[in-house]
Amino acid sequence: MTTENKLKILNDPIYGFITIPSTFLYDLIEHPYFQRLRRIKQMGLSSLVYPGAEHTRFHHALGCMHMMQKAIQVLRSKEVAISKEEEEAVYIAILLHDIGHGPFSHAMEHSIVEDIQHEEISLLFMNALNEEFQGKLSLAIQIFTGDYHRKFLIQLISSQMDMDRMDYLKRDSFYSGVAEGNINSERLIQMINVHNDLLVVEEKGIYSVEKFLVARRLMYWQCYLHKTSVGAELLLSKILKRAKQLTLEGVHLPASDSLKYFLKNSVSKETFNADALLHFSLLDDADIITALKNWQFHNDEVLSYLSSAIVNRKLFHVKLVSKADFNSELNTYKTLCKDSLHVGESSLDYFVFGDKLKNQAYDLKAEPIRIFTKSKEIIDVLDASDQYNLKALSEPVYKYFICYPKSLYKVDKI
Q1: Are 171 and 192 spatial neighbours (Cβ–Cβ below 8 Å)?
Q2: Rounded distance, CA 98 to CA 105, Å?
C-alpha cells in the first residue's frame, strides 16, 4: 500500500528549491483556507502599473517559510537552542501570517468589512484551524500573538526586520522589475543572532541592514505607494462602498454568494463570526473582478462608470498637492465635476476624493533593529550606522493627493 509523499520540494523563481519540512505543514498548505491564497495577488492592483506584478500571496507565504527555515538553521549553527516544537511553530506562524488577507486586501478593509485588519482575520483562521487539527497550532498562535516567552521567535515573525519583509521586498522587486527594492536577504539572515533573548544583527552585517532600509523606502515610493496604484485601490474601495449602499437599498447586483454576504451584512471585528469566516474563506480576486465586469453594465451610473474605469484601465488622474492646499483643491475639482460631468451632490465623493501617503522606512516607536557589536554591546542601527541619511529614514514623509476623472484634468488645462 502506497502513502502520499508529503515532504514535497517546490521550485521557486527567487530561491530555487523550497522544501516543505513536515507532513503537518503540508496538510496546512493543502487546506482550502491556504489554497485560496493562490487566487489572491500579492500586490493587489499594482499590475496596472507594473504588468509583471502578478504573483500571489501563496508565493509569498511559501517564501517566508523558506526564509524562516534558513533563519532557524543559522541560529542553531550559532548555538541558539530551538526545540523541534518551537521550530515547527514558527514555520506555521510565518506560513499563515497573511492568511487573513482578502482580495485586494486594503480596499476590502476600508469598504465592505469594518474596523478589522487582516492580521486579526489571520488569527481567526488560525484558531479555526487549531480547532480542526486538535490543538496543533497552539504554540504557533502564542508566537503569532506575541504571548510566547522567547521574544526572538516573535521578532522573526513580526519586527522591523522579520522574515515577512525579507521575502516581500525581494519577491515584489523581482516581479515588479523595480531593481531598487532588491535586498541581500541571504546575507542578512547569515548575520542574525540572539543575545539576551533578543534578535540582533552582528556588527559586520550593518551595511546589509542599511541597504535593507533604503530598499524598503524606495519600494514604498515606487511600488506600494505609487500614486496610480494607490488611486486605483481607492477607486476600488469606492466601488465596493457603492455596491454595498445599493445592495442595502434593495438594488440587485450580480455577485457571488460570498461577495453578496459582505454586501448585505455589516461585518466588523465584533460580528466576524464563524459564518463570516466561512464566506471570507471563499472570497478571492475572481469574485471581485467578475463583479466589476458585470457592474460596468449596470444601470446605476456611478457603479458602472467606476467599474469600467478599473476593468478597462481608464483610471482617474492622481494629482499631488500640498497639505495646505488639499481641501481647497478637493473642493475645486468637486465643483468642476459637478459642472462638467453633471454629477449630483450626493455622488461627488465617488468621483473626487483624496488621501495622504505615509512613508517611514524605520519606526523609532517600534521594536528597533539591534546591532550586536564586537564588544558585545547592543546598539540601535541608527546609532551604529555612520550614514547620516539613515536617520532621515525614521522621519515619516507625507504626500497628499487628489483623484478625479481624467476628463476633468483636460477641462482644468483649458
Answers
A1: no
A2: 10
List, for residues 59-105, the tens digit of each pLDDT value: 999 999 999 999 999 999 999 999 999 999 999 999 999 999 999 97
- pLDDT tens digits along 357-366: 999 999 999 9
Q: Are 215 and 253 in contact (CB under 8 A)?
A: no
Residues 6+ apart with CB under 8 A from 390: 210, 213, 214, 362, 381, 382
- Helix ranges, 45-160 (H): 57-77, 84-95, 105-109, 118-132, 138-144, 151-157
pLDDT band at 410; cut points 50, 70, 90: low
Q: Measured between alpha carbons, how far is 85 from 142 in angstroms, rounded to an integer? A: 12
Place of cell 461577495: 259
Per the listing, cell 521550530 goes with: 87
Q: Dihedral (C-alpha) 159, 163, 166, 172: value to the nearest 10 degrees?
A: -110
